[in-house]
Design goal:
Elements: H1 2-19, H2 23-27, H3 33-42, H4 46-70, H5 80-90, H6 100-117, H7 125-137, H8 151-158, H9 163-186, H10 193-203, H11 210-215, H12 218-242, H13 248-266, H14 276-295, H15 298-317
Helix pairs in contact: 1-5, 1-15, 4-5, 4-6, 5-14, 6-7, 6-14, 7-9, 8-13, 12-14, 12-15, 13-14
Length: 324
């Protein structure tokens, strides 16, 4: 049922984005070397691009659900985050002009997964390195996401890693840019060209601005976004009130994802922010909002879930009938 719902919703979002796109969806593109390279590979074949987009989105959604299942954030296995992530990342906008959005979200999810895995009594150099490597690769796809690099020292503190693991983490964080800079130099460009592109990408003014882009969704879309925001904030309150009764690992994971959500939303303050930020925010928000459904009675949770799905369907159908 979850798989069928995922496919049907994703299909609806794609059809709306391709047939009745908001201007910002088709205008959003990568601004960094790796993102430009990938967009160049997939831009020539729409079907190939959609398949890649779907596969990456599905892997991200399932990985978020596995975090809840494997680390016992819920008493019973749940795949609700699969649908929650899809609704939050693509219910409002799908940036069909670039694969950077789903890839950034996947890397952010894998980074979080590896760092959670590192919370053990023994040294976990491999997990810390992989987590940092994923974080370091994200800015090569979307420059405003360079801010998520602060999550490395934050999570190293949260999960109490040693100084040697910390050094390993910072090596992993820097490695993608060292490789990109070296390849740039080999190809005849300046060694600092990638760093220059990053600084310019962060400071340049996006067109439209992030706020103007959000306004393109119209009143129904803004109401939908407000509903998702309220659900996430309420879930954070639930976590705060129950934090002392949680197991240590569960509490640390929620602290990790709440801080991650704040860091991702801080990228909205950058002049270069685009709707890709919404896809990044969907990663922590989908895990956090699942708390509401875990903590409340089944009937209430089911009612809110159905309202969310119905709302996502409606706002993607309205453009076809000329409303908003």
């Amino acid at each position: 049922l979850i798989a069928a719902s995922f496919i049907l919703l994703l299909g609806l979002f794609f059809i709306r984005a391709l047939r009745m796109p908001y201007p910002v969806e088709s205008e959003t593109s990568a601004d960094m070397p790796l993102g430009l390279l990938l967009d160049g590979i997939f831009s020539g074949n729409v079907l190939f691009s959609l398949i890649a987009f779907s596969v990456v989105t599905a892997i991200t959604a399932v990985t978020i659900a596995r975090v809840i299942d494997k680390f016992s954030l819920s008493n019973t296995p749940t795949f609700l985050p699969v649908i929650m992530y899809l609704i939050m990342s693509g219910g409002l906008f799908i940036p069909t002009g670039s694969l950077s959005a789903p890839l950034c979200s996947l890397l952010l999810t894998l980074s979080a997964w590896q760092m959670v895995e590192s919370f053990r009594r023994t040294h976990t150099f491999s997990n810390v390195f992989k987590s940092a490597l994923c974080l370091g690769t994200i800015p090569l796809l979307y420059s405003p996401a360079a801010l998520v690099a602060v999550m490395l020292p934050v999570t190293l503190i949260i999960y109490v890693r040693s100084w040697r693991e910390t050094v390993t983490g910072f090596v992993g964080l820097a490695l993608p840019f060292v490789i990109a800079s070296t390849l740039s130099w080999i190809s005849g460009d300046h060694w600092l060209a990638t760093w220059t592109a990053l600084s310019e990408g962060i400071t340049v003014q996006s067109s439209p601005t992030f706020l103007d882009a959000i306004m393109q969704a119209g009143i129904p879309g803004l109401c939908f976004a407000g509903f998702l925001t309220a659900l996430t904030l309420y879930s954070i309150l639930i976590i705060s009130f129950n934090a002392r009764r949680m197991r240590t690992r569960a509490r640390k994971i929620y602290i990790h994802f709440i801080i991650l959500l704040l860091v991702v939303f801080s990228t909205c303050l950058l002049p270069s922010a685009t709707i890709i930020t919404l896809a990044l925010a969907a990663v922590p928000a989908s895990l956090i909002s699942t708390v509401f459904f875990i903590r409340h009675k089944r009937k209430l949770g089911l009612a809110i879930y159905l309202v969310l799905v119905f709302s996502a369907v409606v706002i993607n159908i309205l453009p076809f009938i000329g409303i908003f």
